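Why do we care about 3D structure at all? Because function follows from shape, and shape follows, mostly, from sequence. That is the central idea of this module. The next example makes it concrete: a single protein chain, its amino acid sequence, and then its structure expressed as tokens.
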Amino acid sequence: MKLGALALLALAGLQAQAQTTVFKCVENGRVLYTDTASQPNCKAIDTQGAISAPPRAPAPVVTVRQGAARVPAAAAAPGNFPRVDNATQRARDDDRRAILQDELRSEEKKLADLKRDFNNGEPERQGNEKNYAKYQERVAQMRDDIGRSEKNIEALKRELANIR
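And the structure:
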């Protein structure tokens, strides 16, 4: 099976022709292959027999006005792109809002538990923390967890504010 695929690939390579000239540029010891000679130390390389990728259509530069923001044409939906009616989109937004609110509630509960355990920077020492360095390490981890949880809450609130 692999041998057949390899033979097909070799046949395709024999038929493929290079679409453009390829340059090999060396800059600060790094090799860069490009289709433009951007520096004087770039040299054209022989690509005969190499398999070339099919040519790609250039991305449109046109912008489409949607609402108050300007969106690149590549981001605008094409005419045959499936559209969703307003009721379906509203239901999806409601589901998303419910999920985010549930996540927000659980994250707020987690933060409250972390702050309770943290005890204003003086958590109770555990039995395995006879070494003060272990205690300090756990306190620092608790601070990091509290900060991360606060950032998660901020992000969830931003997401909720962005839902229409």
